[in-house]
Amino acid sequence: MSSEPAIDLTHHDSKTIGRNAETLRRFSEAWAKGDVDTLMRLMPEAPTYRASVGPAPGAVYRGRDEVRAAFGRLLAGPPPTDLPPPSGEPVFFGNRALVFWKLRGRAPDGSSAIVEGVDVMTFDENGLIAIKDSYRKTW
User: Fold this and answer.
1) Per-residue pLDDT tens digits for 57-77
2) Strands across the sheet containing 48-50
């Protein structure tokens, strides 16, 4: 049996959505700052990160050590100062949220490009981010 939270589309009360929105706000701020310690405080003891890169369809990291190491590699270096504008407000449904994002990256020819993607966040019963599942457009 999986330890990941089940999809719960029936839980739409404003208290739960508000709690999850606050967790997501804090997570997004920590991500922008490259603050892995705060990211990990906003995830439960056994988080999952499904990356948009790596072996098809993307690398999967499970548990605090693997997720922390993956976030650390991804966020290494100074935070970017020229991020594109946000892609819109997150959309909450049940214990999940869709988070649309844009990052400055490089096209295969080396030119500057904007990479767009979406994360599907799954929250546990305590409002922590149990699963960060990332998808992105490729060139």
Assistant:
1) 889 999 999 999 999 998 987
2) 60-62, 48-50, 129-136, 112-123, 96-106, 91-93
61 in Cβ contact with 51 (< 8 Å): yes
Q: Is residue 7 part of a domain?
A: no
Predicted structure pTM score: 0.85
* CA angle (126, 60, 74) in 5-degree steps: 90
Q: What is the pLDDT of residues 79-89, one digit of tens each?
A: 666 666 667 78
132: β partners: 49, 121
DSSP state of 125: T
4 inside domain: no
Give me the domain span that covers residue 129.
Answer: 14-136
Backbone phi and psi for residue 133, each to the nearest 5 degrees, phi listed first:
-115, 110
Place of tokens 């998808």: 135
